């Protein structure tokens, strides 16, 4: 059940409309940075393997098989090690993921403002960012005034100083998007790790109990 829940959460994160709209973009021959998906793919793999290993553990417990329970324990140890490695990787790269996406957005934004922007897809990429995240412009002075003179790039809103200020920072929206998703991945990983620790303890207790009962 835990494996199924983790798999479901990972698939939901993988197919979330906001992240897929942004991370599938292509600027000329450059693909949007999709390092974010590495952590999700690891969660998908862990969830799927956990479901299989869970059946293995249940069958081993029913049959009172030391061999199956030992295999179950070994698989859990391997999964736990993979998850710890993925957690360390995610912690190290959590700021870098948003930074790479912001750099990709800035490149597209610069191309969209250039006179020859119609010769590439920079304008389309920028509009996708703006419509998906409901923002307009990077985190600088150019970004603040962009809604005033480039309404073709920005979401159509009722004009007011408040709307201009609130919708003018795509860097902030990118940070919020990926920090929120990484936060969910972190919670899922912690929950799985705790469950795995209990599973390993209980499987060893059960295996030892079966071994001791077989002596008598």
From TrEMBL:
Its main location: membrane. It is a multi-pass membrane protein. The chain crosses the membrane at residues 36-62, 68-92, 182-206. The keyword Coiled coil does not apply. Disulfide bonds join 135-170, 136-154. GO terms for biological process: adaptive immune response; regulation of cell population proliferation. Keywords: Adaptive immunity, Cell membrane, Disulfide bond, Immunity, Lipid-binding, Membrane, Transmembrane, Transmembrane helix. It comes from the Eukaryota. One of its GO terms (molecular function) is lipid binding. Belongs to the tetraspanin (TM4SF) family. PANTHER family: CD81 ANTIGEN, TETRASPANIN. This is Tetraspanin. It comes from Eudyptes sclateri (Erect-crested penguin).
